[in-house]
Amino acid sequence: MATGLASAALFADSVAALGGAGRRKPSFGALKPSLGSRQLTSRKSLRIEATVLKDEEQKVVVEGTLNLKGFPDDNDEAGSQKVSDDSLGAVMERGVIKLEQTINIFLTDTVIQILDTMYHDREYPRFFVLETIARVPYFAFMSVLHMYETFGWWRAADYLKVHFAESWNEMHHLLIMEELGGNSWWFDRFLAQHIAVFYYFMTVFMYILSPRMAYHFSECVESHAYETYDKFLKSHGDVLKQTPAPEVAVKYYTGGDLYLFDEFQTSRVPLSRRPVIENLYDVFWNIREDEGEHCKTMKACQTPGSIRSPHTLVEDELDDVADCVSSKTG
Ligand SMILES: [Fe+2]
Ligand SMILES: [Fe+2]
């Protein structure tokens, strides 16, 4: 328990250091290592990049860094707080991380086996249940962060923005499943909603105790969602390509304001992903990609203080460029 609370405190310090509203922003250079191959450029070049990717959207795949089966281990710098020394504290830290991940994997595997047994031949109800549950952790994270902010302990504005955008994305997955009829039987709604209530309080408790463990648990869930949709696309691809896309999906993925769509994809530059929706296959293809993006965001979150809003990063980069230009011309 004490170690878990220490972990939460460490996470809080790191988030506070990154700062929400009213705090000094860290330099972009300090954040670059956590962003992998992210290339932040000027607004003009962003537009050009987005146009190119729009034409080639179907070629976009989840980057190789996404480990769908495995979960962060002791050697995984992004998935855990890497501890390289052999002091007693470091050994204990590694043991705690291992224990947290073992518990998470056991819990998710157990729930997945139960749902697989119950829904093996009822795909849309199964997706409805999964998507009802999928929104819950983001709401739970926001609840706890709001509580800390209300107490005056620290602010994490970027975390709130990103987690809200994640829950907004999952809500649209849920709306799509509802339009496909996944919620037509009362028992499926009853089961999904009751699991969601339990899952909410469990996540709140876990997030207070150990944010790292809570984010890892969500990574397990998102990883399972990616695999589920990937299998579905492979087994039902031909039928899906002959089926029209639900209207809610067309509106969400191709509608006017895609700010929140960009916001939850923290490993991407805003405007770099613009789906083309022509049939139901495209819808599920993009839902699967969304799950992959959630997975990457949850993995990054396990390193304290590593997450910032993609839009904030672009604004900071533009500020840096403006400062550089004014210092040269001044
Ligand atoms: Fe989802
Ligand atoms: Fe998800």
UniProtKB/TrEMBL annotation:
According to its UniProt record, the EC number is: 1.10.3.11
* UniProtKB keywords: Electron transport, Iron, Membrane, Metal-binding, Oxidoreductase, Respiratory chain, Transmembrane, Transmembrane helix, Transport
Record-level GO BP terms: alternative respiration; carotenoid biosynthetic process; plastid organization
Subcellular location field: Membrane
* Recorded GO CC terms: membrane; mitochondrion; respiratory chain complex; thylakoid
Q: How is the cofactor bound?
A: Binds 2 iron ions per subunit.
Keyword Protein transport included in the entry's annotation = no
| Pfam families, sorted | AOX
- UniProt name for this protein: Ubiquinol oxidase
